Amino acid sequence: MYRRSFVLLFLIIGKVSSAIAQETPLWEAGLGLGAVAAPDYRGADQGRTYLLPIPYFVYYGKRVSVDRRGVRGELFGSARASFNVSASLGPPSSSTNGARTGMPDLDPTIEIGPSLDIDLDDGADRNPSLTLRLPLRTVIATDLSHWHNVGWVFLPNIALHFKNTGPGGAWDLGVSTGPIFANKAYHDYYYTVRPEFATPTRPAFDAGAGYSGASVGVTLSRRFDGYWVGGFLRYDYLRNAVFDDSPLVRTPNAFYAGVAFSRIVARSSESARSRRADP
Questions:
Q1: How far apart are CA 126 and CA 73, in angstroms?
Q2: Is the peptide bond prior to 128 cis by the omega test (within 30 degrees of 0)?
Q3: Contact between residue 46 and residue 98 where contact means Cβ atoms under 8 Å apart
Q4: Which of 34, 136, 176, 199 could disulfide-link 159, Cβ–Cβ 3.0 to 4.6 Å?
Q5: What is the pLDDT of residues 167-189, one digit of tens each?
Q6: What is the DSSP track for 207-276?
Q7: pLDDT bucket at 59, cuts 50 / 70 / 90
Q8: What H or E segment, with its residue span, contains residue 88?
């Protein structure tokens, strides 16, 4: 679905290309443009390409940081566990998709919720680093004239992050994988076919709660002097998901790809390292 591609694009927005070093500013901000190719929804056999404005912001404070993983703060003084509050956006899906002909349009969605991130290895300068991420997000559908909750999603995943790799030793590479779970309301929103919308080729279907497929993703990015570039690839496999038998699922495979460019327009004169060195 649109939502997954937008989540991925926003995940790579704050990605930086090197570890925090002496010359890394405490914060940077910028604006750019991105393109995403994605299916209309997970399980759809039709898709589109979208052009999007891309904000860029990173901040590395002593206890709180903002980067590719969202807004994070250390828990209980531990550098190995952090609390992440993140948000993502999903665009609408209309009945122009062949599988949903005659069905109501889907409003854009906003996801927001907490994530407990646990580093699975030791050392402040780990490279590569391995992290267990446990995000739980509520999902709100809105066209700005009305708002309604359409459930929640839980996306536990293992993330492996390589710093200063690739050509020139200046790229960031991330690989993550994990299952997806969601409640009945969320699956209803995308995969239930109520009796009044059933047709001879689209039987009624009532989606339940539970397993929502599995996902693997790769991100690559680099920060140059004055700008940032990044991209991602993602594959979701839906076989054995609780909505696998929905007539709205035309394929068990969902592929996503995106690229983004952001110009850095402002930065702090204070370095991240100096702030972290403060008592």
A1: 19
A2: yes
A3: yes
A4: 176
A5: 888 899 999 999 999 999 999 99
A6: --SEEEEEEEEEEEEEEETTEEEEEEEEEEE-TT-TTTT-TT---SEEEEEEEEEEEEEEE-SSBHHHHH
A7: confident
A8: strand 78-90
